[in-house]
Amino acid sequence: MNLTLKMGVMVALVLVAQTGLGLRQVRRPPLAVRELRAAARRPVVFLGDSVNHTVDPSDHDRAWISQMLGRRLVARVGAASRGGWDMEVFEAASTHIARVATSPRTVLITVNPASLWGDGRSPYTTHANLALDLRRTDSVMWAALAQPLRVFRGPAVRPGISLAEYLAQPVIYRGQVLGRRGEFEPGAPRFAATNAASLRDHVVVRYLQPLAPNNRLLRLAARAAERLTRHRHRAIFFVVPVDVERCARVAPEIEVVLSEKVAAVRKAVEPAGGEVVDMSCELGADHFIPSPYPNEHLNERGRNRVADRLAALVTNPPARRAIGAAHAATRPAR
After folding, report:
1. Which end of the chain is more exposed for a tag (fewer CB within 10 A), N or C?
2. What is the pLDDT at residue 4?
């Protein structure tokens, strides 16, 4: 057997093996992929992160936001949420919905202000791998060819930035560099005690870091909006509430910074046909689960407020184009 024939046989065997692995991926996808696919079958699709499903053990009603929304709507709500999910996953889900949905959907996409900073590059590949897994299930061709050399355990995706580069990025507050990102990671010495300084550091690194104009997550959001609306689906980007009342005690500029980030979201998705509903600064501290540091996790009262707002938006489509102007003029009382 000459060398060319041997090489041809080897390539054929690799392709057969990879296609076999791809078919297995289609038939037995990961649990998170199965949940995303199941959610896409419903007329209202809720794509969320931990804000959706985190509850206070002392709540009388421990229903998730998506479950509370379902009670308020005639249409059934399909929900998929995991802690830390962001636009990387949601953009892949929008591709899946556009591909498989045969009737118009209303797609609610969570935007967490804590994820909006810098250029959006991540040293972690969990979300990118999940997005790739979801795309693989859409077609045998994708499954077979989306990850070359998978049969040899080649890498699925590469991180957008190395961990060392990520941790070396400056943390900036009021024009001054407070330190490097690695100094502000959970468990860092500056968070050993809860005091005014550590509270400020938490708010600064979580919410107040500058947002680069070329932020990758904003580009993904625009792509998701364009794809969904092109296929006659309604794309609503929901900016989750932040405990700004507690944040403002150590960083008075919190509402201004969040408003600037929401404006960047609008600039990205509205020209592509998406809608933005902004609740980032609407709820007082009594709507959040007690925690040493302010965050976005809501108690029963807060989740009900969010479900009310989303239900009104979903059931009143004619008002959606004016929602940005109306929200800018008047905000509900906290």
Report:
1. N
2. 76
Which of the given ranges, 94-108, 139-153, 220-234, has the highest pLDDT on average?
Answer: 220-234
DSSP collapsed to 3 states, 38-99: HHCCCCEEEEECHHHHCCCCCCCCCCCHHHHHHHHCCCCEEEEECCCCCHHHHHHHHHHHHH
Neighbours of 260 (CB within 10 A): 13
- What is the share, in percent, of the chain residues with pLDDT greater than 90? 69
Give the span between the Cα atoms of 116 and 205, in whole angstroms. Answer: 11
Question: What is the three-class DSSP state of 288?
Answer: strand
Phi-psi region of 292 (alpha: psi -120 to 50; beta: other; left: phi over 0): alpha
* pTM of the entire predicted model: 0.85
* Encoded tokens for 262: 């929401």
List Cα–Cα distances, 256 to 123, 178, 207, in angstroms.
29, 20, 11
More confident residue, 318 or 131: 131
Alpha carbon distances (Å) from 83 to 32, 39, 89, 111, 186: 12, 17, 12, 13, 16
Q: Is residue 235 helix, strand or coil?
A: strand
- The share of the chain scoring above pLDDT 70, in percent, equals 82
Question: Which residues neighbour 80 within 8 Å (Cβ) at sequence distance 6 or greater?
Answer: 32, 35, 36, 38, 39, 45, 46, 47, 48, 93
CA dihedral 179, 185, 186, 189 (to 10 degrees): -40
